[in-house]
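User: Second chain of the day. Same drill as before.
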Amino acid sequence: MSVNKSNPRIKAIEEITSILNGDNHKSYNNEDAFYRSLISETMRRFGEINFHLKKYIKKPLKENQKHVKANLIIGAAQILYMRVPNYAAVNDSAKIAKNKSPHHVKFVNAVLRQLSRDMENNKLKELSPIKNIPDVIINKWKDELSTDQLKKIANQHLLTPPALDISISPREDIKKWKANLKGEIFGNNNIRLINNYGKIDNLYGYNDGKWWIQDIAAQIPVKILLSKIKKNANVIDICAAPGGKTAQLISNNLNVISLESNNVRAEMLNNNLKRLNLKTNLLVKDA
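Assistant: Same format as last time:
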């Protein structure tokens, strides 16, 4: 394994270190498939990974050693949840430690080898998926939701790939798109895909401009708004990229001004609307 800045494991460790330090999130925009798998699987299973690692870390690491903890987290994610041979996950984590934190090579090696052995011998405690949701959130949700409901939410977060909600233009036949996209009708004009659907731009009808990706929860504000205002009303969509709500508003006969302060995201919004053959008054400025 090459230990250089482009190594996906090292990039993943850097990102997890930033999270552990409480830094403002800044995506690396790395398109490497392995890197993206590392980050997504680690974040989905963050609570479980930390729980298991605590068993082997007898002495808490210092505040300035978050990169060591991040290395262990990324190594553990590969051992526990990914199709990476255990010996490869351990060896690569040790090599990274040798380069980045040479005083912790034996420590990283010992922790991950013991974790690997315990997993192979079925000695790891089976955990509830709720473990992956931060306590501060769970403690609030407990007042409104049952344990069974919390587990369903937690399990939904673990789906790989995650469920994909597709919003179909209200002018389209939803049943036709259900058949062609091989999904399930979800709501009035949504198709949900839950299988291994691959790249979005390879999905049926992508270039026809009749649908866009928009999580069902993200559609609720516009649905509420539509029930309160008249057709052809003027609406401002603030922080408009990537464009789901703007598309939703325009498709329901509203006149939209879209505000987006970030140039890159504004270009993304523009490209998405171009594919959908929808027009907005796009202003690249801070609201």
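The first helix runs from residue 8 to 20.

User: Great, on to the next one.
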